[in-house]
Amino acid sequence: DGGITQSPKYLFRKEGQNVTLSCEQNLNHDAMYWYRQDPGQGLRLIYYSQIVNDFQKGDIAEGYSVSREKKESFPLTVTSAQKNPTAFYLCASTSTGLREKLFFGSGTQLSVL
Amino acid sequence: SQKIEQNSEALNIQEGKTATLTCNYTNYSPAYLQWYRQDPGRGPVFLLLIRENEKEKRKERLKVTFDTTLKQSLFHITASQPADSATYLCALGGGTDKLIFGTGTRLQVFP
Question: By the CB < 8 Å criterion, does A97 face chain B?
């Protein structure tokens, strides 16, 4: 079955630690996105990539980093510079740009120990 | 700044009735609008897309309207069922590579 796989489902970060969230898709989509979801707030865009080896900052990129070395993969690193990392992180992809629907993964809940 | 408003209070309706959810926006002229369904602890799932030149779109028991004068979209679920209980998100796009999401409205359908 085609889809987007995020792992892990739950992740705990210690203070000062970098953690990496995985996102893999087998939909052959060109564009991939990372969103952050906090209670009572809409999804906020962290980073997005429209092609391999290229990515752009979203609205809340500070404290995060990404890479896009393969079409299928778009990992997100939450660095120690992100002082409020507790949130639900969602990865999404789309084939021909945002005029088409986004396919979302099942999300990763990140909490701080 | 661009702003999208969805009713933050939960909408509770009885099974069989029509649920109507509202998405209002300001300081934005979207080329299209999307609606998603999100269950607790899961990622959103796409439901419908409506473009600025379309007034209404239907899919099975779902209907979406888009009024660019009122800057509003209405999302209707007819003959609602308990399985329709979820949070529904609207998202606006156009002109850039980014979608702007609302906070979502939680719908609870009780038997």
Answer: yes
